[in-house]
Amino acid sequence: MAKDKTTYVCTECGENHPRWLGQCSSCSAWNSITEFKESKVITQRTPSKNAHRGYSKEDAKIDKLSEVSDMDLTRFDTGSSEFNRVLGGGIVEGSVILVAGDPGAGKSTLLLKTCAHLSQIGKSLYTSGEESKGQVRDRGLRLQADISKIDIMNSGDVELICNVMVTDGYKFLVVDSIQTAFISSLPNSPGGVTQVKESAAMLNRLAKEHGVTVILVCHVSKSGDMAGPRVLEHIGDCMCKIEPEADSKYRTLRTSKNRFGDTTEIATFAMTAKGMQDVVNPSAIFLDKDGAESSGNMAYASNDTGRTLLINIQSLVTESQAENPIRGGVGFDYKRMQMLLAILRSRMGVNIGGNDIYVNVVSGVNLTKDVGSDLPLILAMISSSREHKFSVNTIAFGEIGLDGSVRPVPSGEERVKEAIRNDFKVIILPKRNYNKRLETKGVTLIPVSHVKDVLEIF
């Protein structure tokens, strides 16, 4: 009998190590490396011809790449316009979709409603290794979803699941979750690196060989990455992650990989008693136009994630009572704020660096990597220091260089259109983002090329 091979695998990121370490060199997690013994013995239930197989459909025939026939993508409506848009226009037949998220993020809630809608199109099977059939049924009734055509199975045996899918002619499969799936011929326990990898590979072959659409629920690690081996991310055609916003009522769905669409799209949902409801205009979540006008407030048209969101930026500049002025920021990069204060002093002659300065991005939105927020932040800080009140219908965006130039930002036209759609009447933007065709009746566009131009606004 062959000797068992010993490997050391990080349970957080799935990285292999030649020996045990206290800290994973890949994800920096402590005490996460576990010893695994992989048996080289092929059991009777594992045919030798399948011992070495790829992750997708096998086709040994050699063809000219230019002569390969076009693949017509068949897409199915998921029942959610937001989910459809993130997937590239609907879920593709024969694809494997990975949906990850923290516990309670809404993975099972979203996919149960999706499965209910897909069951009206073709036979659908929902397999749950974490909840009983009664729990899943009760959730479906609470969500008021039509679950009459959903078939459910409480099993994580992937070989059994694949056999049922092919034999009974199912078109859609939801596995909740891949961490509870297993192949009985493997000695490892469910959730282990080998089980997750081989289970996902078998389900991927099911999708490619039989045209079955597979949706896999995935856990996440402490660092927020998808739990399990990295190969899991390579197997999936589309990888989505559900993230809760600062207000736990809202959820954001993002894609980091999509073989059939764009990865810049994001979807916003509201978690309600009836499940995940589409938020068609997410700017309404982050934008407050109903409050009274006050100094230090400025609206910003963000497009860092590929979808334009209108956000409120607040600043408070007050006389310092300490030897060293205080700098406080929520949702903004502290070092970039220091740089903008230096630009204000050197390029505009506005010296407010001796004051305590606080910056807040409303609703907890993170703009630490969004350079387009430079212009609205400068406007907010000057507004606060001079007690100047901007109209609630004023919005701005633009990056500021060290020479004081106001640089253009990507998707400038989309930002302007979104601002106009939300009834903003004054839009301050970089001159190189300005275009005459953006002129709209009742809306004033103020293009600026240098920070000195900004002073003329006050």
Automatic annotation (TrEMBL):
The gene is radA. It comes from the Bacteria. GO terms for biological process: recombinational repair. GO terms for cellular component: cytosol. The keyword Acyltransferase does not apply. Coiled coil: none annotated. Residues 72-220 form the RecA family profile domain. Gene3D superfamilies: 3.30.230.10, P-loop containing nucleotide triphosphate hydrolases. NCBIfam families: sms. SUPFAM superfamilies: P-loop containing nucleoside triphosphate hydrolases, Ribosomal protein S5 domain 2-like. Belongs to the RecA family. RadA subfamily. GO terms for molecular function: ATP binding; ATP-dependent DNA damage sensor activity; damaged DNA binding; hydrolase activity; zinc ion binding. Keywords: ATP-binding, DNA damage, DNA repair, DNA-binding, Hydrolase, Metal-binding, Nucleotide-binding, Stress response, Zinc, Zinc-finger. DNA-dependent ATPase involved in processing of recombination intermediates, plays a role in repairing DNA breaks. Stimulates the branch migration of RecA-mediated strand transfer reactions, allowing the 3' invading strand to extend heteroduplex DNA faster. Binds ssDNA in the presence of ADP but not other nucleotides, has ATPase activity that is stimulated by ssDNA and various branched DNA structures, but inhibited by SSB. Does not have RecA's homology-searching function. InterPro entries: AAA+_ATPase (IPR003593), DNA_repair_RadA (IPR004504), P-loop_NTPase (IPR027417), RecA_ATP-bd (IPR020588), Ribosomal_Su5_D2-typ_SF (IPR020568), Ribsml_uS5_D2-typ_fold_subgr (IPR014721), Rubredoxin_2 (IPR041166). This is DNA repair protein RadA. Pfam families: AAA_25, ChlI, Zn_ribbon_LapB.
